[in-house]
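Why do we care about 3D structure at all? Because function follows from shape, and shape follows, mostly, from sequence. That is the central idea of this module. The next example makes it concrete: a single protein chain, its amino acid sequence, and then its structure expressed as tokens.
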Amino acid sequence: MKKSLIICLCIAGSAFAQHDHVEIGVNPSNTNQLGIFSPSLQWAVYVPRGEAFSDYAQDFPGACFASELTFTTQTEILSPAIDEDPDTNDANPEIELISVSGPIGGSFSFWETESTMPTWTRPTGWTRNETDTPSFSVIFLDDPHAHGRIFSADQPGEYRVTFRATDKNSFFQSSTNHTITFRAVKPPPLSIQAQTNQAVLSFLGRVGFVYDFQFSTNLATGIWSNLAKQDGPSTNNPTAANQLVLPLSHPRAFFRIVEYIGFINTNAVP
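And the structure:
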């Protein structure tokens, strides 16, 4: 049977992304002061609405550029407030948002564990003031290693977001300001060619990312099936294209790629 024109739909997202850690501990240069230790760069990939995102954030609604981060405390140093045998050094750290910069008209959000709506959202160009003080506790529901927390952006581009750690129990001085760059990236374009009863799908992926090829025969159902999974190009050949060759076995088909982070950035800085 003659196959009709295959429509290529390119949507990318972040499925079951690996996450980095932001550790709240003691500043090695000043043992009376808190310190923030984390990678300086986070990737935020586009998550389509309803697409699976993370084992720790299965209810995340998507439709934005997202990056999952896990906040932890150096329990052996801070002796968190939840310690069974508290002492005078017990700390209960809190993260305060200081400023957000990025694309004009963009906004940046924080999602608490298992939330389906942002805990807070601030526009680019925002700076903390006496009447606007967004924050969140590092210790969440007695857990000093809280998973499922997400930062998101509504537009592509680079967001420079500055935080500060404070101790709600006042045993430690507040940390110095700590800036993390969130790079919200559009998905790579997906191209398609029909060649002798075959469809050739190709795109130029990114080093350190993983891709699912997916297809659907009816967009109205919102159901997508995985065809294959491929790693992005290697550091030895970063411009190599990802490609998948498929038989034309349906009268009509829609294709997309789902992009997610396949590595953990260990570039931690105080």
